[in-house]
Amino acid sequence: MDAETKKTRGMISIVVPCFNESRGLVLLHERLARAIQSLPMSVEILFVDDGSEDDTVDVIHELQRADSHIGLLQLSRNFGKEAALTAGLEYARGDAVIVLDADLQDPPESIPEMVQAWREGYDIVAMKRADRSSDTFFKRKTAGWYYAILGKLTAVRIPQNVGDFRLLSRRAVDALSQLPERCRYMKGIFAWIGYRTIEIPYKREPRAAGDTKLPFLKLLALALDGITSFSIAPLRLASAAGAAVAVGALLYALAVFAKTLLYGDPVAGFPTLVIMISFLGGMQLLAIGLLGEYIGRLLIESKQRPTYLVDSVELPHFEPDIVSLPRRSAAIR
Ligand code: UDP
Ligand code: MG
Q1: CA 20 to 30 Å from 284, out of 20, 116, 148, 209?
Q2: What pLDDT, on the 0 to 100 scale, is given for residue 146?
């Protein structure tokens, strides 16, 4: 490690995506400030306002007056958590970046432990939910099935019960920004980059205030994103199903042919016909829909739109001898 890196190894960025979180932010800041007090390096807290419609921004401004370590990145509208995270990671200047939900489901008290693991040499410290008792039975079940299917379909191992709560070293963050895709399934992207990873169990708490900003349908869309961004197995499955049906149809045709020759069976089998036609019709529509999922994502990627747009940036000021890192290495983009 060269002298330059050693000198700057001392800053941690904490990125907090916020969408209508004003009710919980003061408590979050309180707990966060207490948790990071003992860290032997400087810290910046970067709130990313993802187009909140409540007074989230005012609350953050209020906090900024009391704490000079707080920065605010305001996106031009609501782009979704994945985009907000991407934005935060791109603007964070720390030698390690911690991603934290604003609703206190990720306990800030875990941060010193995460930093410790990073200092021991891990690039990614992923926090694993030890139990999901704060989630509903339905969410637990569906999440379990989803991870099982995802695990079967993808080549990258996407760890189970690990959310976005994690620490990333500088080189891991730089690696992330080299992935230009627009459909940002962060769990998959985090897993894709690799590097030395450690999983630390923690207890996920219930939301401190407000409601979930990721209702079932949004989660479903995200889940689909996860599969289509990291696997083309469903397309292969469609081809395989098509082949199986074709072979079946051929065998059936032979059977009917033989039966007609042997027994002279005249006109019959209307029900079979109807069943076959509707079955095949369904299969075809399903396969076309599947194709559509991928083509839709191709369309989104081909437009090359930015993942997010920034309205305003206020980064906290740091003593020049501590901060000297460029925001992004020049090699990227
Ligand atoms: N979030 C965001 N933009 C969105 C939705 C959510 O920045 O469009 C943030 C939200 O403020 C929170 C985090 O993402 O800090 C996780 O959201 P939430 O707690 O609602 O999701 P859940 O924990 O229920 O999966
Ligand atoms: Mg939450």
Answers
A1: 148
A2: 82
- Supply the DSSP symbol for 68: T
Give strand pairing partners of 200.
Answer: 127
DSSP 8-state assignment for residue 99: E
Task: Give tens-digit pLDDT for 93-125.
Answer: 888 999 999 888 889 999 999 998 998 889 999
By CB neighbour count within 10 A (0-12 exposed, 13-18 middle, 19+ buried), where does 65 fall?
Answer: exposed
CA of 15 to the centre of ligand 1 (A): 13
Return the best residue to mutate from 19, 60, 204, 212 for the ligand 1 pocket (most ligand atoms within 8 A of CB).
Answer: 19
Q: Cα(181) to centroid of ligand 1, in Å?
A: 21
> Does pLDDT of 4 surpass 70?
no
The pLDDT value given to residue 319: 57
Residues 150-170 have a mean pLDDT of: 83
- The 10 Å CB-count burial string (b at 16+, else e) for 4-19 is eeeebbbbbbbbbbbb
Helix extents (H) in 126-185: 137-153, 170-176
pTM: 0.73
Q: Whose CA is nearest to atom 8 of ligand 1?
A: 80
**Ligand 1 neighbours (beta carbon < 6 A):** 17-19, 21, 50, 78, 80-81, 84, 101-103, 105, 212-214
Residue 114: Cβ-neighbour burial (10 angstroms; 0-12, 13-18, 19+): buried
User: Cα(329) to centroid of ligand 2, in Å?
Assistant: 32
Asked whether the beta carbons of 107 and 179 are under 8 A apart, the reply is: no
Give all strands of the β-sheet with 197-203 in edge-to-edge order.
Answer: 197-203, 124-131, 162-169, 96-99, 11-18, 42-49, 70-75, 310-314
